[in-house]
Design brief:
alpha+beta, single chain, 259 residues, globular
């Protein structure tokens, strides 16, 4: 039994090393909350898709490529098999046509997908790279990002352009509370390895506390905190608050802009 356990552990280590950005989360030395989107952008191919069709009965979702941000060429169409053990995983069962899907990975066979507020690990078919099969849900990756997939796509675009960005993420594996952190384009070797966590943004903590965990839930409870954040001396805090306010309540955003 010990030998079997040792072989299984060794295999897990090999798979983790081989899968690069997909395997980093498995390392006990580097917990997920130690990594940032800046690190992911340095080490992964990244692509944005939109949900094209959903077949809930068969557990199949079709994605259409909208933009390849970086890395290897991606299939223009993806057939995602979202059932696991005969059931569609939570989150994937709520997909609708038009929703944004963010995907990244470091090799042909493993892909990390973020959609509808949840992370999933999938494997592409050996014979057809455009067919992805869901392996497991990865709630631990909420330590990288939580929120609408469109915001994650925007964050990757900003980092790719060399600009700092603020994103919302879970504080820790066992701490469901969220926070906003600064993600800077990686410059130092330590930042490129992902060992320098994003700096928490105190001025947006009240916003994080009032935003719902479910991207589909009503976020208007955060409007008072966002209005307050607009008066911050930090231009990026103001820009982040203004962007979120515009997404939540366009009328409130216009009134704030008129002040």
């Amino acid at each position: 039994m010990k030998r079997i356990a040792s072989i299984a552990f060794a295999l897990a280590v090999v798979l983790g090393v081989a899968s690069g950005v997909v395997g980093f989360i498995e390392s006990p030395r580097h917990p997920p909350e130690a990594f940032t989107l800046s690190w992911v952008r340095q080490h992964a191919w990244i692509a944005f898709f939109k949900v094209d069709q959903v077949d809930a009965d068969r557990g199949v979702v079709l994605y259409a490529l909208t933009k390849q941000l970086q890395g290897k060429a991606c299939p223009k169409q993806v057939r995602h098999l979202v059932q696991l053990n005969g059931k569609v995983l939570p989150g994937l069962d709520k997909l609708k046509a038009g929703q944004v899907v963010v995907c990244f990975g470091s090799q042909d066979k493993l892909v990390m997908t973020y959609v509808h507020g949840s992370w999933y690990l999938s494997a592409s078919d050996k014979a057809d790279a455009s067919v992805w099969r869901t392996i497991q849900q990865r709630p631990d990756l909420n330590c990288l990002f939580v929120g609408p997939a469109a915001e994650l796509a925007d964050a990757f675009r900003e980092l790719a352009a060399g600009r700092e960005v603020m994103v919302r993420c879970q504080k820790g594996l066992k701490e469901p509370a969220t926070q906003f952190v600064r993600c800077r384009p990686a410059k130092t070797e330590q930042e490129k390895r992902g060992l320098k966590r994003g700096e928490p943004v105190a001025a947006l903590q009240a916003v994080a506390d009032n935003l719902p965990a479910d991207p589909a839930a009503d976020p208007r409870k955060a409007i008072p905190a966002l209005m307050k954040a607009l008066s911050s001396d930090d231009p990026l805090v103001c820009a982040t608050a203004a962007k979120l306010l515009k997404e939540i309540d366009l009328k409130a955003a216009k009134k704030a802009a008129e002040r």
